[in-house]
Amino acid sequence: MNIKKYAIILLSKRDYFEKELKEKLYKKGYSKEEIDNVIKELKEEGYINDEKLLNRYKELSLQKGYSTLKLKKKLYQKTEITQNLSEEEELLSALNLLEKSFKKEKNFINVVKFLKNRGFSWNTIQKAVKKFLDGE
User: Fold this and answer.
1) pTM (two decimals)
2) What positions does the domain RecX first three-helical occupy (predicted)?
């Protein structure tokens, strides 16, 4: 199958970061030169846009309640681009996660352990627990 056609089929199912798509094409048996050429074409045509995808991925991570560490780990697997959540974004992410996970019992120790085990910074944990337990 034509490499460009195969790449477009992959991209029609979901968006890929450049690094992910290169790995998929390489595993399919295409040469590095062919892959580089088709990636360049797809970028020029607007099929691949790492920055736009990165922003969407960041928004999704906030909704899911990912910490900065978890976001970095996930992105490292998919692309060379690194992204940090701001303190406000990480706090929002922690609060989203707490609201989804703690419906009834809101014990201080359990909430702190829960956030700590998910990689949130101590500063964010303190702010999130205070807001969450005070019901703000």
Assistant:
1) 0.68
2) 5-42
